[in-house]
Amino acid sequence: MSKPYKGFEPAWFHGEVPERSYRSIFKWGDPNFIKPPKETLYTLMKDMFGVTDEDFKEYSENLGLDEVSFDLPITLAEPQLAAFRAIVGEAFVRTDNYSRLSVAYGKTMYDILRLRNKIVENVPSAVLYPDTKEQIEQIVSFCAKEKIPIYIYGGGSSVTRGVECVKGGISLDLRLRFNKVVNFNEVDQLITVQAGIGGPSLEQALNDAVARFGARRAYTLGHFPQSFEYSSVGGWVVTHGSGQNSTYYGCIQDMVLGQEYATPMGNIKTDQYPRKATGPDLDRILMGSEGTFGVLTHVTLKVSRHMPETTKRFSFMFKDWETGQAAAREIMQSEAGYPSVFRLSDPEETTFMLRLYGVDESPLRHLFHARGFRENEMCLFLGFTNGEKRFSRNCARHAAKVARRYGGMSLTGMVTRGWEKGRFSDPYMRDTIHDFGVVMDTMECSVNWSNLSKVHAEVRAYCKSRPNTVCLTHMSHVYPQGANLYWIFITRISDPEEFREYHAGILDAIQRSGATMSHHHGIGKMFGPWLEGSLGRNEFAVLKALKNHFDPDNIMNPGGTLGLDLEDKYKRFSL
Amino acid sequence: MSKPYKGFEPAWFHGEVPERSYRSIFKWGDPNFIKPPKETLYTLMKDMFGVTDEDFKEYSENLGLDEVSFDLPITLAEPQLAAFRAIVGEAFVRTDNYSRLSVAYGKTMYDILRLRNKIVENVPSAVLYPDTKEQIEQIVSFCAKEKIPIYIYGGGSSVTRGVECVKGGISLDLRLRFNKVVNFNEVDQLITVQAGIGGPSLEQALNDAVARFGARRAYTLGHFPQSFEYSSVGGWVVTHGSGQNSTYYGCIQDMVLGQEYATPMGNIKTDQYPRKATGPDLDRILMGSEGTFGVLTHVTLKVSRHMPETTKRFSFMFKDWETGQAAAREIMQSEAGYPSVFRLSDPEETTFMLRLYGVDESPLRHLFHARGFRENEMCLFLGFTNGEKRFSRNCARHAAKVARRYGGMSLTGMVTRGWEKGRFSDPYMRDTIHDFGVVMDTMECSVNWSNLSKVHAEVRAYCKSRPNTVCLTHMSHVYPQGANLYWIFITRISDPEEFREYHAGILDAIQRSGATMSHHHGIGKMFGPWLEGSLGRNEFAVLKALKNHFDPDNIMNPGGTLGLDLEDKYKRFSL
């Protein structure tokens, strides 16, 4: 529970979310959990936006409490529905409107704005809830014969319109039943799961490996995206996801050692050898295909030892963005092991975080002053290390040594703990605040060190070109060759199409500045128009050739995913 | 210079190698460097084989000193040759027999036996020596139009018949001119090179980065295959090569961050972002294609800091293979950083190495006895660590700690130094010994921990089923999920076809035992018949679809490479 406000507190929505309502679909996470902003954050928002308590006296957005209602035809014939019922069981084929809409949208603000405005465009004719790999294989095979579009819904946290059923057909909702551990192999440190398993369920199984699998010790996957609680392994794999601890544990690409897909051209199963030189790597050909080649069914993942007791937290303040960047690069290039969480905030995000975590009310603020660190210039660096005890300690010590060499001032592990506390619950605030018209969304990109300052400056300039817009930027998922830049923008937009235009402008700015438009969010249908421009014509043609091989009738996630089935006129060549 | 023998010394060939001779083609490396075995090794060979000095009194194989001579037609028309001359220059299109044969074979014993026996089957009509990427692009484009087969020759160390010009056409010999550094970027720690650059040339440039590029410090690629001195970057990339230090630095897949290819469907250039979620990874789609999609022209590689002073060597003796394996797995799974070189020999190789490095004549042998370690049971583990000083030290200490926990007895760094000394020159012995009919070749595979003992036992059993055959096995290139098993077999075979049959039997044994048939040698034409059986029919069809996209007329390395253009009847489905 948060502390009561001293000043005016907006009537943050605390009501029950009706079961078949729009809100129950667009709201993040647990339907019964609400996270209103603390008073410090509320005050901060007002300062940063130039808005007042007046703007928070009445909801400016539809709360979405009405029952879902729309009139879109079911285009499947009864024999087709009967065939699906025969495969997955009577109870697991649903055609009611609520089920149809519940799998049609992801979590970009474009989706949420549409749902709040009851704009229902693209829904499947039926939702199927398969239980086994074999059922999915039968479904794909049947759909290939009947040319029925197939969409896949894992955790539903896509911010790229990845799950949207643009061409109707069916959606496979994997959450309900296709969510189990298939096999655990302690000797090889591998776990095989059904693609619909969610982050917490998998992580819990690994943490409990002793009791659950009779293992000798506890394990972790080490994959903790901010969407952790409501995203699925399948979604991570097909979109090339990364967790917040990726600098040590790697991105999902580094964790996958085997996959099975049901595709229109047949089933595919990759082997699980630790490394091989047997032609182009099938796992990498399939990963990142975002449902356009086939349905990912089983995934085999490498696991690591679960040793939370060896975690070493650190946080430092640097005098400015350039210095922080130089220190970050040195830590990543000096070969002393990689920290696990590694996050450098730019000046605007630093200001925000200091207030969010109450640092600017602590004695530390005097120290900043004494050190000559200036607000809106200084940059916060935080993180922690994992691994074997001495490895982890040595890695943290080395990071601290480099930070000090670059004039960094240690803030102890306090700020890191503050960050950790909110890492999975912060997304809940988004809906609460949005009731008053404030939208919050994110974009990110991957860039080399030598171009990082340019990309940061140019993309930020575009974001800030919109009046009263907050743009918080941090670097995370860091490599010897560069880093991910992550933007959180907060502004007021009510019209979904206005949001989409702003979003497109950011993508244009990312491409023009010399970065690639996704480090770990994927492409989906929302970024699809940019992909060919980003990769190049001959390069993009390779993906199209693969698509054509696996899915010649374009039934897999059709309607713009990865831009594969877009006509040129819908593509955006920003460069 | 080696010490004089006390007993009988065979007349190891020390003569000059005539310039246009067969020997100048099949001989490993520097034409003027000879490495005869030391007396200890010679004695050991006799013991292990059950042969005597008598067998080493006369050369039993053709020394290959005759000038190359064969009569195979040039099938290119004069206007085609003229077109090539216009692209690369008059002097850089050669059609003489010596040039043609010099790029037609690699270094599997099958190649060497054929050359010693003057069996010349497959040569190109012409050899081209391009200078620039643009020239290669023009050549490929011209050949695509004229349907002329293209082969590529990098360092020529292929052990899979990867370079063999089965369908004639042309071969691009990249050694002569396409071997330069294109760009060095210290901020991003990246180097871009022409694909024909050789290991030492690239490594020297990086070590000399301060003088050469005005860099702040020295760098290394960290890629040291045994073929280092005579292999090319392009060869490493297209075959998925690994160096002996891969456990720390990674395999070539981990080092490549950008590639350019000239393919019949056009030129391809991948981007160089540190990581991305923009659809299936083009770099991985192209890597491992072994010249069947196009010609790799430029490669951008990640580089690391060159810190030889931080190297920490270790070596241990374990009581047996199972104990050594368990310790190796624990080191790789305990997350204290990975050693760089990591090599565990099985009992037969251990016996061999102890004699090779003179350990069995040192006081250590008494210690083995005192510890109850038995010959033909005990296993030698050696390696070293790299990286930042404390990281490297901690990693070596941890390896030692684990080794001791598993009853390992430290041999200090002595044995490791012995191994390092011979790591690049040992291949020279192969030709010297072969003059007396003893063939020595290698096979390797990738396997998970849980199946490693089975694969070791079964493949070894096949190798040893041949009378008087030495089979030395070690584990190297190690991962948390498994390892590479590497077999060196030494036997007497004179007939190339008999060699091929034995080689095929080993491949069958690898597949049947549950390993994949190449960790880093690639597939080429020699392993091609097994690939579909190894991957599966639908899985293999994906590679064929890519092939068909890039090279619909099959002009790129045709004739069985990766098995892509083999009819089913030539394929081997061993499982």
Overview in brief:
Chain A has 575 residues and is α+β, with helices and mostly antiparallel strands.
CA radius of gyration of chain A is: 24 Å
Kindly estimate the percentage of residues of chain A that lie in beta strands according to DSSP.
15-25%
Morphology call of chain A? globular
Low-confidence stretches of chain A: none
**Fraction in helix of chain A:** 25-40%
Number of helices of chain A: 22
| Main beta-sheet annotation of chain A | 7 strands, antiparallel
Structural class from helices and strands of chain A? alpha+beta
Q: What's the arrangement of strands in the largest beta sheet of chain A? A: 15-12-14-13-17-18-16
Q: How many strands in all of chain A? A: 18
Q: What is the residue-mean pLDDT of chain A, rounded to a whole number?
A: 95
Q: In whole angstroms, how far apart are the ends of chain A?
A: 49 Å
Which two chains have the most extensive interface, and how many residues on each? A-B, 92 and 92 residues
